[in-house]
Amino acid sequence: MKEFFGLDDDWERPLPEGWFKRDALIAGVVFLSALLGLEVFRASGALSSGWPRWAIALAAAVGVAPLVWRRRFPVTVMMLTAAHMFVAGVTQPAVMANIGMQAAYFFAIFTALAWARDRRIVFLAACGVVIFMFGWLAVQWSVASMRDELVASYQGNGSREGALFGPGAAAVLYGLMVNVLYFATAVGAGAVSWRGARARARAVEQARTITRQADQLTEQAVVEERLRIARELHDVVAHHVAAIGIQAAAARKLMAKNPERATDSLSNVEASSREAVTQMRALLGTLRAEGQAGASGTKDAGEGETVTARTPEPGLSNIAALVDEVRTATFDVHLDNLVDVDVPANIGHSIYRTVQEALANVQRHSTATAATVTLRTGEERNARYVEAEVLDDGRPRSGTSGSGLGLLGMRERVTAHRGTAEIGPRLTGGYRVRVRLPLDAAAKTKETA
């Protein structure tokens, strides 16, 4: 019972937007129903009271009016309508008994259990109302005149042969059953409505929490991916800068013996240095996370000294080994390498990571048993590019939708290189990952050297 009525729950049901207009409309409909019920009683001769029509209408209006504030002051409205039920039942039974007023009393009890903020108070108030009403009915049934009316109304002209109860007992039992059903339905439906609203509110809050956490995880993944890209590109550029230093030293030594070769070497050094600086400025806006090791780990160099071990990251030349590693007895991968130019290490590494993530996604999230990896170069609008395309013919595997962070990482890499990406299902079936990255000045310099 404590759980059903939420006696220890401090959740407060928020008022819906436009609640006053809605409740005023409901009160108006109930009032018109009460007037119609009174006219039906009048036409059938059941309205025995000598009260004038306006007084009876006013009594109905007084009983219905509190419903306008039923959701704002639910317990108060229930107590007011309960008092009206008692007073009208004593002075104007026809007003209390007609269908419109019974609906008003029902709405008041239902709303109190459905909208009250203090669950203990509304529970005690509802118990008080129910106990009072049944006590009042018991007193009425105990009065001789009331008993005679009940017997007369339920006795009828039919045969009573074999009946288990006498007319009086049958009348009281029937009235008791009707009232138990009436009050139990009002109280139970109100409590169920409150529990349903609480469950929906908690579901909405959980959904918001999940959305916030997903946004935080996505943002964190973006930052981590950018940091990783920055570290990898830093290592590649650092490798080339070291090589540039060696070439510059060699050019200096050849300056006197072979000036033309020295001049060509210095031109290449100049172009490579500018491209390296451009990459560093464009891609290292995100700083290396504090306290993290280099991309390839560290090794001891002496007492109290640590040196970062830097080796070239995997590139296009390593994709064949990657394909062999991914290929299994149940999953075949075919590689077409049509690249005919030298590709800078940083771009080659991004292509490698793209192919690696695409193949992993096929294995984890698709029913495909085979995939095709195509590497190609081309030219568009006088700009050279390198492209990687991974195709499969499978369907999405149920229950393995993933977090989407892998695809987010692909797009981050493509954006970093000012490239384009086409990622999604194909019209003919299967899935396509196509990434196109422009070749930089360093690649063109190597091609013409």
Q: Which structural class matches the secondary elements?
A: alpha+beta
Taking all residues together, what is the mean pLDDT?
77
Distance between the termini: 86 Å
* Number of separate helices: 14
Order of neighbouring strands in the sheet with most strands: 3-4-5-7-6
List keywords for this structure.
62% helix; alpha+beta; single chain; 5-stranded mixed sheet
How would you describe what is shown here?
- Residues 285-310 and 441-449 have low confidence and may be disordered.
- Helices cover 62% and strands 11% of the residues.
- The chain is of the alpha+beta class and 449 residues long.
- Helix 8 (144-155) crosses helix 9 (167-254) and helix 9 packs antiparallel against helix 10.
- The longest helix is centred in the middle third of the chain and has 88 residues, at 167-254.
- The chain contains 14 helices and seven strands.
- The chain is rod-shaped.
- The strands form two sheets. A five-stranded mixed sheet has the order 3-4-5-7-6, covered by helices on one side. It has a two-stranded antiparallel ribbon with strand order 1-2.
Short structural summary:
It contains 14 helices and 7 strands.
